[in-house]
Design a protein that fits this description.
4-stranded antiparallel beta sheet; 148 residues; Immunoglobulin-like
């Protein structure tokens, strides 16, 4: 069954956007857009495993904030308890350093063997909520996740 998710996007991808997403061994370069559907790409993960996150942006000035959600129970809602898996910010925006951190996939109460949605949201000067559209500067990207 195909699920329908809330719409999320930025108002503009200028002055900062995601240029590369790395989660564990999964890596994807991307261009400037207010929203990109990368559901044709799948990050493979395992229950109970910790994954390093590196979100690279094109900013060397603007403070960027990132949130990541995964629909672990595959119910078409990304803001259930425990589904916001990552929240990070650019520590020194003038250095152009990526946003880094990690998250752990729960060992139980997770749908396995079916493609799940992972939403990555980058916003300048604060965090975007999971279903905000035409909100601020930055970018939103959706990816597929397969958990075993």
């Amino acid at each position: 069954m195909e699920l329908s998710y809330c719409v999320s996007s930025s108002l503009t991808a200028d002055p900062v956007a995601i240029t590369k997403v790395q989660i564990g061994s999964f890596s994807n370069p991307s261009g400037k857009s207010t929203y990109t559907d990368f559901m044709n790409l799948t990050a493979n993960m395992n229950r109970g495993q910790t994954y390093n996150v590196t979100i690279t942006t094109d900013s060397t000035f603007w403070p960027a904030n990132v949130r990541i959600w995964i629909d672990y129970n595959r119910n078409g809602v990304l803001n259930d308890t425990g589904e916001k898996v990552f929240e990070g910010w650019m520590q020194d925006q003038q250095s152009g350093q990526p946003i880094t951190g990690s998250f752990t996939v729960p060992s139980s109460s997770v749908v396995t063997g079916q493609k799940l949605v992972m939403r990555i949201s980058l916003r300048v000067n604060g965090y975007r909520n999971v279903c905000e559209k035409n909100d601020g500067k930055g970018e939103v990207e959706d990816y597929g996740v397969l958990i075993q």
